[in-house]
Amino acid sequence: MASLDRVKVLVLGDSGVGKSSLVHLLCQNQVLGNPSWTVGCSVDVRVHDYKEGTPVEKTYYIELWDVGGSVGSASSVKSTRAVFYNSINGIILVHDLTNKKSSQNLYRWSSEALNKDLVPTGVLVTNGDYDQEQFAENQIPLLVIGTKLDQIHETKRHEVLTRTAFLAEDFNAEEINLDCTNPRYLAAGSSNAVKLSRFFDKVIEKRYFLRDSNQIPGFPDRKRFWGGTLKGLHYD
Amino acid sequence: MSFLIDSSIMITSQILFFGFGWLFFMRQLFKDYEVRQYVVQVIFSVTFAFSCTMFELIIFEILGVLNSSDGLCRVLQLPLLPLETEPVRHSADPGLPGAFLHRLFYLHKQRLLFSCLLWLTFMYFFWKLGDPFPILSPKHGILSIEQLISRVGVIGVTLMALLSGFGAVNCPYTYMSYFLRNVTDVDILALERRLLQTMDMIISKKKRMAMTRRSMFQKGEVHNKPSGFWGVIKSITTSAPGTENLTLIQQEVDALEELSRQLFLETADLHATKVKFWSQHISFILVGIIIVTSIRGLLITLTKFFYAISSSKSSNVIVLLLAQIMGMYFVSSVLLIRMSMPLEYRTIITEVLGELQFNFYHRWFDVIFLVSALSSILFLYLAHKQAPEKHMTP
């Protein structure tokens, strides 16, 4: 049963945005009844069918590592958190749609996870500013999820959604906006579920099928198609 | 004219304090949060401004800067108003308690009623507070400012004393614990490995649960967590083998998660201690500098002393005596510095000086230090008293 392949996906975001509720919803298809403050890291596992509906369908375990805390923590806490950032295959960035600061802090969260070798000094050279180059050469797939959509009033919805669209563009990632207390946002067949599935597929691909790092940009499809089937033979 | 100057000084200083409180709120307190209700920020800044104004007025009164003294009394009473309205503000602002209130009371009227009730309860207990304390004299009325200040004073002084007492004990305790524990990288790595192992165990159990749930779902069974009284009864009587398995594993997972939390906290603690450990090294360098300067001072004093009391006959003896004193001083310095040294070097000193009761020397040092400090204070006081007399006598 535990012989399936696995990928590791980090779930990052400020305190109280709803990461634990989101992870619970993703893994158990149920709403979390009693959310409490996460100390350290809580993990949950989702069983995902890679390329569902095609002949090359394969089941994988997706480990969702929900790391608690805030960006402004002491350097000792940051060094301890860095333990969980080893060998990650994907990052889900969670922010609260009602709280602008949490969206801004996502830049710092992603820098912390992607530059984990530089974390212990506690002094970020880029001082939290958005570094375009860092995200351009980043190989790890990102996904931006905005929570508490139900608490946004109808009139403000458009403005909030445009802001988050810019945010997702900065990260070169897809975005999903939902309410973690309502499972219908991720109902099978909805656009959100499709985006999620695509993200997980991308993570699995990057981990298992695209081992060579010197890909030719602009021809990803061909590589995936051709190299994928060849390499797939090794990993079965 | 002077009234104009005074009031302009007051107003500018108030605006300054208000701005400072505002900045402090934004930059320090709410650094990671979003300000949703600006009312909270305004109230905070206003209270801060008034408190600073209170101090400022007292200082001005002492210095004799402002002229209008009766207006002063009225203005001094102003800062006390915000303190009285404290609970109303707490119920009025929809922060964390407000979220709770928001769910209870949808109507604005009900919220207002609730906050008024809260305020009345607070005032009642506030008044009751005055009874056991001898802070009142019968000649003051019931709604006078003295009543208010006396009660606020009781609460404030209690708070200050509590915090000081806690700080006085906690500070040396944490300081000592950081110094006494020497954390190496190996310890931290070992603990981190344990943490990751625990996480792996949790993951493997969760994988089993996920597969069980998936197979149950495919078979058509639905697993509902037993909620409520009847749900629990039902789950006891009719339980599919899949769900039993799940609850068992879930219990194991809960225990493991608790363990992982403990390990995480321990690792964070170790990291913090390690950082403090480096401050220990730095303090060792500083102590070294102090030692060097004190040696220099000692040598200078010895030379002066030597010049003062030596003659051609006794110079040898005095030099030897001074050498003895210098030797003893150095050895004792090394003894005392051992406390603030990193572990590797401590063993060297222990080897050289032998197994001694180092703690005793520290305590002895403290006692004698205290005695000598007190006696030198006494000595200086007497000397100071004698000196003006010497000057006064013609």
From TrEMBL, chain A:
Keywords: GTP-binding, Nucleotide-binding. The keyword Nucleotide-binding applies. SMART domains: RAB (SM00175). InterPro entries: P-loop_NTPase. One of its GO terms (molecular function) is GTP binding. Signal peptide: none annotated. Belongs to the small GTPase superfamily. Rab family. Homodimer. Interacts with GPR89; the interaction stabilizes GPR89. Interacts with RAP1GDS1. Required for KRAS signaling regulation and modulation of cell proliferation. Regulator of KRAS prenylation, and probably prenylation of other small GTPases. Required for lymphocyte development and function. Not required for myeloid cell development. This is Rab-like protein 3. It comes from Myotis myotis (Greater mouse-eared bat).
